[in-house]
Design goal:
37% of the residues lie in helices and 28% in strands. With 583 residues, it is of the alpha+beta class. Bound molecules: adenosine monophosphate (AMP).
């Protein structure tokens, strides 16, 4: 039987684990390391290198070495080597292939099934691309799960104590913070927030900037346009950063960094921890907003947290740990390995899926609300933000105009009540609706999101049973920044949006009354008819004037007339559809 592996496909490093005697165990690679650099290189001789071998030759082969490709997953970016373009998922697949091969040689069995982790805020396109990378690598991807969830699973599974925890995950390229509710047999993600472009690489870049300045001071030369020197500076910066997690000072020595008229130039500098803290204080501070957002979304205070888990190599930075302490008032838990717990959790999730473990259920949430555009630019939410996945919700809508035989479904993601202020994920048309007055057809719109976070939308005319659907994938998705902005905008414009929505609802209700009046008018006799005529024209005038108060009063008057005559017959098909009513 083929074995299942859990894979943390990281921006900087990747890790793989498998189940052994009911526990998840990290698999060392063939070089003997427990994590593998997520780096791929193509040598000039046509050989493909993955992991540490690729990282080591990056300096001398910078233009043919690719790292942090995870940042480009789901994008249209291509990596060109020897006239061939590689998609990010193809490069990622090469990393996955190595992990698979290393796992197979360690376990001594074939490996096909895998659970792969992604940052919590990865969009559909990014999740799909990750799944595709697995497929290209010859893996059967049973599930894509969020990294913080996976880490908590590794932690929660061992402990099994009911509590609310925060997972603070600062890796090489991404920052995620999640609030989780851990019970004896379930882990529910209450909220997630973060920043898709914040991680250890940025800390390295701060040191690189400082080193460039130091070099300029020493040699009056700018190295920023010299790719070879920049690669060496980046490596030295990361090394210094790692050293500063345990030492107060790091000596950076880069001999023969450049040449000036055949005279070699060297760089010798010493970076102290306090200077490093100053250079990177803005990065540490940038984790504050998402932490507060996640707590707010989960509806809890930091004092309600039982535990704070640190995940990702960058949480080893002392200033980051101090910030977590400061933000939460808690000493972060250290009994979990920040580099390995994500892969271990993915492996445990695999155990749940294959039935090897049956004592825990895992629930993820959707990061933003989903719904459709309705009349007057109003956003009708069908699935709320932070709803546990998988989920399916339906809502019945109707037509906006008389005898409309098709509707366009504009699938939206966001928190604003105004449709156009949200992000459109895709549109499709439902045709073949039975001809009827506005408001009569019943169109059921169903949203379902699977456990991988992939959205499927169906629209069905309940009268004719004709239906259309769409699976949201590809370019329409939102980046982390867009998601954060959507949430902030929603809070800022909440009152304004509500007002606009109310106005539209009022106009909608008025149009419905005019429709009823049109139908009723045909059957009226005697003095009822002029009463209705006058109420109708008062309402039409008010609508034209756009005066809300007058629309409300005229609607009430027309409603009262209609109620008093008590004629609400549905008009036969084929009559005027221009809003007029026949004599
Ligand atoms: P991850 O994505 O979790 O593998 O984290 C990788 C990031 O963690 C890289 O930017 C590393 O430079 C950084 N990192 C690893 N170990 C340390 C350490 N001891 N101190 C500071 N940063 C570290």
């Amino acid at each position: 039987m083929s074995r299942l592996i859990g894979i943390d496909l990281g921006t900087t490093n990747s890790c793989v684990a498998f189940m052994e005697n009911g526990r998840s165990v990290v698999i060392p690679n063939t070089e003997g390391s427990r994590t593998t650099p997520s780096v791929v290189a193509f040598t000039k001789a046509g050989e493909r290198l993955v992991g540490m071998a690729a990282k080591r030759q990056a300096v001398t082969n910078a233009s043919r070495t690719f790292s942090s490709v995870k940042r480009d997953m789901g994008s249209g970016r291509r990596f060109r080597v020897d006239g061939k373009d590689y998609a990010p998922q193809e490069i990622s697949a090469m990393i996955l292939q190595k992990l698979k091969a290393d796992a197979e040689s360690y376990i001594g069995e074939t490996v096909t099934d895998a659970v792969i982790t992604v940052p919590a805020y990865f969009s559909d396109a990014q999740r799909q691309a990750t799944k595709d990378a697995g497929l290209i690598a010859g893996l059967n991807v049973l599930r894509i799960i969020n990294e913080p969830t996976s880490a908590a699973l590794a932690y929660g599974f061992d402990k099994g104590l009911p509590c609310k925890i925060m997972v603070y995950d600062l890796g090489g390229g991404t920052f995620d913070v999640s609030i989780l509710d851990i019970n004896s047999d379930t882990i529910e993600v209450l909220a997630t927030a973060g920043n898709n472009h914040l991680g250890g690489d940025d800390f390295d870049q701060c040191i690189v900037g400082w080193l460039l300045d130091e070099f300029k001071k020493q040699h009056h030369t700018d190295l920023s346009k010299d790719p070879m020197a920049m690669q060496r500076l980046t490596e030295a910066a990361e090394k210094a950063k790692i050293e500063l997690s345990s030492a107060q000072e790091s000596l950076i020595s880069l001999p023969f960094l450049a040449q000036n008229a055949s005279v070699p130039m060297h760089l010798e500098s010493s970076l102290t921890r306090s200077r490093f803290n100053e250079l990177t204080a803005h990065l540490v501070a940038a984790t504050r907003g998402p932490v507060q957002q996640a707590l707010q979304d989960a509806g809890i205070r930091a004092s309600d947290l039982s535990r704070v888990l640190l995940v990702g190599g960058s949480t080893r930075i002392p200033a980051v740990q101090a910030e977590v302490r400061n933000l939460t008032g808690k000493e972060p838990a250290r009994d979990i390995n920040p580099d390995e717990c994500v892969a271990m959790g993915a492996c445990l999730q695999g155990g749940v899926l294959t039935g090897a473990i049956n004592s825990i259920v895992l629930i993820d949430v959707t990061p933003l609300s989903l719904g459709i555009e309705t009349l007057g630019d109003v956003f009708a939410k069908i699935i709320d933000r932070n709803t546990p996945l998988p989920c399916q919700h339906s809502q019945v809508f109707t037509t906006a105009a008389n005898f409309q035989t098709s509707v366009e479904i504009n699938v939206l993601q966001g928190e604003r009540e105004i449709a156009s202020a949200n992000k459109s994920l895709g549109k499709f048309r439902l045709n073949g609706i039975r001809r009827a007055l506005r408001g009569i057809p019943q169109i059921e719109v169903t949203f379902s999101i699977d456990t991988n976070g992939i959205v499927h939308v169906t629209a069905k005319d309940l009268g004719t049973n004709s239906s259309q659907d769409i699976t949201i994938s590809g370019s329409g998705n939102m980046s982390r920044e867009e998601i954060d902005r959507a949430v902030r905008d929603a809070q800022r414009y909440a009152a304004e949006d509500r007002q606009r929505k109310q106005t539209q609802q009022l106009r909608d209700a008025a149009e419905n009354l005019l429709n009823q009046a049109r139908r009723a008018g045909k059957k009226l006799k005697g003095e009822d008819r002029p009463r209705l005529d006058s109420a109708v024209s008062a309402l039409k005038d008010a609508l034209r004037a756009g005066d809300e108060y007058r629309i409300r009063t005229a609607s009430d008057d027309l409603d009262a007339v209609l109620r008093s005559v008590g004629t609400y017959a549905s008009a036969p098909e084929g009559e005027n559809d221009d809003g007029s009513y026949d004599a």
